[in-house]
Amino acid sequence: MASLAIRVKSRNGQQVLKDLTSESTVGELKMFLSSLTGVSYDSISVLIGFPPKPIDISNNDKKLSEIGLRTGETLIVEEKSKTSSDSAKSGNEKPLENGIASNELVGPCRPGILMKKVVPSDNSCLFTSIGFVLNGNVDTSVHTLMRQIIAMEVASDQDTYNEAMLGKPNAEYCVWIQQPSSWGGAIEVAILSRFYGLEMAVVDTLNAIINRFGEDKNYGQRVFLLFDGVHYDPLYLEQSDGGFQTVFPAEDMDIYNEAEQLAKEAKSSRQFTDLNKFTLRCTVCDTLLKGQVEAQKHAKETMHTSFGEV
């Protein structure tokens, strides 16, 4: 019998589980999930679908086919909430929502400094930055999965993602975004914000503003990305005890105001990229181009639309 391929998201990141079949039991599933995520067997809570909804895993003897689990599904694994009395003892701690990884439980921020984590300028900086705020580490391979997620979403809704929005035909865009040399921007941030179920606040140092993606969805969590006009880096709170935090409660306006102040300070000290002066390389013909205007002219004359940072 063919094994199921199930994607698992938890505070430890993302893994693919291929050791079970539709005849495997819920109990076996929980054992594997506990091993993958570090959540104890009796404390596992599983969400499925979009938006994520709890799935009943109370009967350990049920087969996976009976609970509707199929290959290709994504499971979000969380630790069951503590009882109200436990919560009162431990303060204002909450379990992480949607399996997003952070080095601290989401709650009031400890005293610390909002810092930039520099990621490589390899045309996938947006995806690497999002990977860092989700999983707490710099992994330059996460762009492949994120590009696939974006392509699938765009291909599934051709009315919304039409040529006027994308700047190219839907099918052409889906091929383009999956190329490692293609940059991500607002469209891609908006899609990934919905996919991961949290607000993504892009701190724009060029204009000293914060652009919020997912603001209208009332997500419970928020992450911050720094954008200098060309390059993205993630922001994190470096804490006095040596730890750090990348995911914050959406209602925490103190950290939001700190990010806003950072944007203003960066603009005043000119920590942004002048789009008229930065250098690009056409990855098709290796031509070096100065600024956005030259790049646009080159693309119009040659139909080359793939550029890399220099």
UniProtKB/TrEMBL annotation:
It is an enzyme of class 3 (hydrolase). One of its GO terms (cellular component) is cytosol. Residues 114-238 form the OTU domain. It catalyses: Thiol-dependent hydrolysis of ester, thioester, amide, peptide and isopeptide bonds formed by the C-terminal Gly of ubiquitin (a 76-residue protein attached to proteins as an intracellular targeting signal). It comes from the Eukaryota. Residues 4-84 form the Ubiquitin-like domain. Pfam families: OTU, OTU1_UBXL, zf-C2H2_OTU1_C. GO terms for molecular function: cysteine-type deubiquitinase activity; zinc ion binding. Keywords: Cytoplasm, Hydrolase, Metal-binding, Protease, Thiol protease, Ubl conjugation pathway, Zinc, Zinc-finger. It is found in: Cytoplasm. SUPFAM superfamilies: Cysteine proteinases, Ubiquitin-like. The keyword Zinc applies. Its main location: cytoplasm. Residues 78-97 are annotated as: Disordered. One of its GO terms (biological process) is endoplasmic reticulum unfolded protein response. The keyword Oxidoreductase does not apply. Residues 1-77 form the UBX domain. Its EC number is 3.4.19.12. PANTHER family: HIV-INDUCED PROTEIN-7-LIKE PROTEASE, UBIQUITIN THIOESTERASE OTU1. Hydrolase that can remove conjugated ubiquitin from proteins and may therefore play an important regulatory role at the level of protein turnover by preventing degradation. This is Ubiquitin thioesterase OTU.
